[in-house]
Structure prediction request, 304 residues.
Amino acid sequence: MADDSRDGFTQGALVGGGIVFFVAGTMILTGIPSGGFGSVSGGTHDGTAATTTEAVTTGPESTQDLSMTTSSEPTRTPSATTGTETTTATPTATATPTTAPTRTTEAPQSEVRYRINVGGERLKASDGGPDWLPDTERNPSWFGNARLSGSRTNRTSDQIATTSAVPDGTPEAVFQRQRYDPDVKGDPTDDVEMQYRFPVENGRYVVRLYFAETYFGETGWRDYKKSGPRKFAVEVEDETVLDDYDVYRELGHDRGTTKSFAVESEDGVLDVVFRHKKGDPTVAGIEVVRDDGEESDDGEDDER
Prediction:
């Protein structure tokens, strides 16, 4: 192929892989980019040389458990004919490791199912658990049998000290209200012992009973030097957990404690019964807690 200009000054001929130009009697040889005069992927259409980028495909045997992110970074390539630089985008693979999900296992925790402020009004809980439900003279708790047993309530405004067996956050007011079961001779209602029944799912529970001897006045309680005016037994799920219990002998006056007993319910109802021995059985509060391994305190108390 030959190309003649209109004025005859410049002539050219295609020779092999290049073009020969004759300019004013001078021969100039130049090359043609691979691929001819057509459009080349990755090149330009302004007469500069095109740079071809070769992509390498990795076979299945090279597959890794990685997430591949491709980013383009400019690569500058000098032109062989014009001395200019051609910028092309070269894919760069960035490997991001796949992170396995983390599993967190929570330890089981005790869950309070019931709280009764025996003999008193509703009390707000301060530990995030349920409130202490009321059990007053006029409106006794429906978990109890006050109407059948003839039990009564009393109260005090004295400050109550507590032992270390009392859980943190227990309101002092729990010990300032109580319910007791009078021992009335000749009264047929006295044949029914004071008790509480709680609907539960079958399983293990901890029953916490709150006691304090607050009945006596400023002088009367001093008449009891070694033992108090009452002794009674407590049964939880037909098992005697306290027998001949004398609150005053153990704690003295205006001092509260908590007794905890681990039991298992198999009939859907958890029963707590207070039986007469001497004088009137009494209790200030009751909690029923779903058991996660908590043990009975075996009646041992430490000062706090």
Remarks:
- Helices lie at 146-149, 173-176, 247-251.
- Confidence is low (pLDDT under 50) at residues 1-10, 32-75, 77-93, 100-108.
- The chain is about 5% helix and 40% strand.
- Residues 111-290 form a domain with the Jelly Rolls fold (CATH 2.60.120.430).
